[in-house]
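Thread: quick sanity check before group meeting

JM: Hey all, I'm pulling together slides for Thursday and realized we never actually wrote out the predicted structure for the chain we discussed last week. Dropping the sequence here so it's in one place. If anyone has concerns about the input, flag it before I start.
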Amino acid sequence: MLPVLLFWLFRQLRRKQLKHISQKRNVHLTRLLFLIAFLTCSYQYACAQQRVARYNIIHKGECKGSMLLTEENKGKTKHIRIESEVKVSFILSFKIHSVEEAIFENGVLVYSLLYRKINGDEKTNQQMELKGSVYKITSKDNYEEAPAYPVYNTILSLYSFEPVNLHSVYSDNFRKYVALEKKGDDIYKVALPNGNTNYYTYKEGVCVMVDVQQSFYPLQFVLTN
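JM (edit): ok, ran it. Output follows.
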């Protein structure tokens, strides 16, 4: 669309010049040309740098919540964020609101966030930030250093791309690397230290489903768009 628009405007400008239309109108037309080109290119650039995906959270065939994934790239910085809300019931009812973030610069993790509320009460608020060559982890309970530098991929990265050549990813929740194993065509397994297992399924490089296998409340995150 943009090349066609530019060609038409250039032709209009040339015709005006040949007909000796006033210089003022030519100046206005030229300014209009560059303004449209700038705005169109800026819009295309902005759209190309951000991806938004929505997932339904399914339990035994019923939708129990949703998750929003936002991935933004600006130069050498990548920002991945997921926000979810789910209602679960077993004996008692729980409403769980979670936010996870990861920021990478030049491919290295520089900041991460793990935040969780249950029934409105804050249960987890953990941040990890790179200081020099050391990761500083702060939470409402303690402060410590993580001997994991440099981190190139976290569990959040599995929502960003298919981990074709990866064998482990860093888990903010467990503050350690966890094994990543390919189980079939476009399916990858993550075995967590607490005994839970996640299966990530991809289609054309996009994560379309996450199967969370846990004994008390199995869930599926299914891409909707």
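AS: nice. The helical segments are 2-18, 23-48. Residues 50-223 form one domain.
JM: adding both to the slides.
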